[in-house]
Amino acid sequence: MVQHTILIVEDEPDTAEMFAEMMRLSGYRVIKTYGGAAAMKMLGQEQPHALVLDLMMPDISGLEVLRYVRRDPALTHIPVIIVTAKSMPADVQTGLDAGATTYLTKPVSFSDLRQAVAHAIQQSIFPAVADD
Prior knowledge:
Blueprint: E1 5-9, H1 13-25, E2 29-33, H2 36-45, E3 50-53, H3 62-71, E4 80-84, H4 89-97, E5 102-105, H5 110-125
Helix pairs in contact: 2-3
C-alpha cells in the first residue's frame, strides 16, 4: 500500500506538530512547513497527496498559497484542506471559491481532520463519475 504524503502548512509550531501527529497516527507521511513562502518552495520539491493549510500566516497568506496551487498545472490536482480560525461565512466562501477542497475551522477534532484528508485523497485518486 502506498503511504500518502501530507504537507502541513501552519505558522504555529505546536499546532503544526499536533496536526502532524494526527496524520502520522492515521498512517500518513508528513512534511511540515511554517509559512506561505516555505510552502511554495516545498511544493517545488515535493508533490504531496494533500495539503493541510492554515490561512493566517505572517508572510504569504494561505489563500495566496491556495491560489498558487490552483494556478500551477503541476499542482492543481492536489487537494487542499484549509484548517483555520477564520470561521465567518464570507471567509469560508472565499476559501472554497479559491479552490479549497474542504474548509475546517479551528479547533478541529482528530476525527474531522482525518476524515477530511482521507476523503480528499480518495476523491483525487478516484474522482466521482458524473451521472448521465
